[in-house]
Amino acid sequence: MAKRARNNVKNKLGRKVRELRLSLNMSQTALAAKAETHQEFISDLERGEANPTLETIDRIATALGVHVVELFDSRQWRLAERNRARSFRHTS
User: Which domain holds residue 26?
Assistant: First the structure.
């Protein structure tokens, strides 16, 4: 996977975690405690600078009260993937 694509995934994950955390009026410290990690890690994650393990992603999703898929699957992402697939077919 290209570096740009990896960074895009990390940025989107971070934005989603922040969005969900704020919707719950939860601080980074509270999320970190519930997810058994550190506040600094949550901060890095939300800025797209962390590279979490699957286990950590699962703990964060649980702490936010969502399924792991919800951290990655959104209508916008599905539309972007569909458009990317269409443009790929048209250029092939």
Answer: 3-91
